[in-house]
Design a protein that fits this description.
Helices cover 18% and strands 37% of the residues. The protein is of the alpha+beta class. The chain folds into three domains: 127 residues, Immunoglobulins (Immunoglobulin-like, Sandwich), CATH 2.60.40.10; 231 residues, Alpha/Beta hydrolase fold, catalytic domain (Rossmann fold, 3-Layer(aba) Sandwich), CATH 3.40.50.1820; 118 residues, Jelly Rolls (Sandwich), CATH 2.60.120. Strands 2, 3, 4, 5, 8, 9, 10, 11, 12 and 13 form a ten-stranded mixed sheet that branches. A six-stranded antiparallel sheet has the order 1-25-24-27-28-29. Strands 14-21-16-19 form a four-stranded antiparallel sheet, with no helix packed on it. A hairpin with a 4-residue loop joins strand 4 and strand 5. The longest helix has 17 residues. One of its GO terms (biological process) is lipid metabolic process. Keywords: Signal. It comes from Dictyostelium discoideum.
Length: 512
């Protein structure tokens, strides 16, 4: 019976075998700001020592898994490029170490050098921004297609992101032809300039979008006191706009106001799984993890999996933690962090939605757990300290039988098959070879995506489904007859592959 259902579904999908064409350039709106929080957190992590291979992250855009190439991994900045969604995210690292503290306390107002009449800026922030100026501008100048550019960061990183967004709006947007739009999203960002700077920034506010998040604790208002806010954003300088306030009651309120500044509390308040990491090698490692509330890890699988973990709190007063397991996205949606309870679920939730792997402890622990079912596994590491975030806590988690990204298609070629009015009919052909180690979900089907762009413009995307056993694929497409087009193909089995080789079409001839 199950076999028949699979066959019917397969035939149905092949009959549909849809070919969807839509423009992929979309602005990331407020409900997607978890993406910027995630990248504002990743930039704190140790820099990669592997300089011989390209680095990628797979992060969803509104539920669609996208490849983000790390085109700069600098001590202060990471830049993430999603070529097929026309998005470029510049993430500035916040305070981390003594030199950054020195930058923070250089609070003396100094003349703003970005444009005339822009008032005064925090001396340390402006100085730090210009130390990154050349390397950032070189990346922007090297772009080969239009991008929506987002500057983001936490704390000091947010201050640098705002200065960069202002600078690029005033001085670079008209000069650099591939800057399509400019945006700034910050978390716990301190004020960067005086009132004159704020007024100048507001003068240009119609030319870029700016969202600033601040955590606060409304519980103090119950006691007749003013709500406590993250104290870092407030200083002798002024903010140009009101913040988007995030009530910590949604997650967990700290005992001291400074706790409102932790990045993982911001992440918990803006979490949206449709903009979260969607693929990895399912091997996670943290060193000296800074967890205020919890950290979750997702791994897609297609059959039983063995999960292994090793947790090592260190120091005189080792961190307390607990570890939870969820076997589906629906079960994970029922999770609600509670400091006093291991792996707490929302009220009225089925208690079988979670499994407690490690109860609250400060001991070194290793575990192995076999999971017999579940397409998506979530492991949650909880901070169980009474007051503070974890600070000397290291661990690693691995999954077996994870769904790995497929190999990219090869030997892509394009030929013109018809000319009609103002359109060209082209035949796109390529080879696909399924490697033995790749594990497939969706009944052994592959989604192929053909990305097509007129040179210097945005990408459009065509999708269709084939069996994973099909080794040679050809598809007919109609495109406008108006220029040179670049074409590339990816394969997707739940995670999108790297791109194939590029092919080009011009008029009625194929270019290599």
């Amino acid at each position: 019976m199950i076999f028949k259902i699979k066959i019917i579904l397969f035939i149905f999908l092949l009959i549909l075998n849809y070919l969807i064409d839509f423009n992929n350039g979309t602005i990331i709106k407020e409900d997607g700001d978890y993406l910027f929080g995630l990248l504002s957190d990743i930039v704190y992590m140790p820099k990669s020592t592997n300089t011989n291979s390209e680095q990628y992250k797979y992060i969803s855009l509104n539920g669609e898994c996208m490849e983000w190439k790390i085109i700069l991994d600098h001590s202060r900045i990471m830049i993430f490029q999603s070529k097929f969604s026309n998005n470029l995210i510049v993430s500035f690292r916040g305070t981390q170490g003594f030199s950054d503290i020195i930058t923070d306390i250089k609070i003396v107002p100094t003349t703003c050098n970005i444009t005339s009449g822009c008032g005064k800026l925090h001396y340390g922030f402006q100085q730090e921004y210009y130390e990154t100026y050349d390397i950032l501008l070189s990346i922007i100048k090297s772009l080969d297609q239009p991008y929506d550019i987002y500057f983001t960061g936490h704390s000091l990183g947010g201050a640098l992101a705002l200065i960069a967004a202002y600078d690029y709006t005033v001085n670079q947007r008209q000069k650099q032809k591939y800057i399509k739009s400019i945006h700034c999203v910050t978390f716990g960002q301190p004020a960067v300039g005086d009132e004159q700077f704020s007024n100048s920034l507001m003068f240009y506010s119609q030319r870029f979008q700016y969202r600033r998040y601040v955590n606060y604790n409304s519980k103090t208002a119950i006691l007749g006191l003013s709500p406590q806010e993250d104290p870092i954003p407030n200083s002798i300088f002024s903010h140009p706009t009101n913040a988007i306030m995030l009530d910590c009651l949604k997650t967990r309120c700290p005992m001291v106001p400074l706790g409102l500044h932790f990045m993982d509390l911001y992440l918990g308040n803006v979490f949206n799984q449709h903009y979260s990491e969607c693929s990895s090698n399912c091997k996670f490692e943290e060193s000296n993890a800074n967890i205020y509330k919890y950290q979750s890890y997702k791994c897609p699988i297609n059959k039983e999996s063995l999960i292994k973990g090793s947790f090592n709190p260190q120091g005189i007063m080792p961190d307390k933690y607990s570890v939870c397991l969820f076997t589906s996205a629906q079960d994970f949606d029922q999770y609600e962090y509670k400091q006093s309870t291991d792996c707490n679920l929302k009220s009225g939730t089925n208690s079988n939605a979670t499994s407690i792997i490690i109860k609250k402890t400060s001991n070194r622990t290793m575990f192995e757990k076999k999971v017999l079912q579940g397409k998506e596994l979530y492991v949650v590491v909880e901070n169980r300290n009474n007051l503070f975030a974890t600070s000397s806590f290291s661990y690693n988690i691995t999954f077996t039988n994870s769904i790995t990204a497929p190999s990219p298609p090869t030997n892509l070629s394009c030929t013109v098959s018809s000319l009609k009015n103002d359109t060209i009919g082209i035949m796109v052909s390529f080879n696909y070879h399924q490697l033995p180690q790749h594990i497939y979900s969706l009944y052994n089907l592959i989604i192929y995506r053909v990305y097509l762009s007129e040179i210097g413009k945005e990408w459009s995307k065509f999708e269709f489904i084939e069996s994973a056993t099909t080794k040679f694929v050809s598809k007919f497409l109609n495109i406008p007859m108006n220029g040179i087009y670049s074409i590339v193909v990816t394969a997707d089995n739940g995670a999108e592959s790297h791109a194939s080789n590029f092919a080009y079409i011009f008029g009625n001839s194929t270019l290599i």
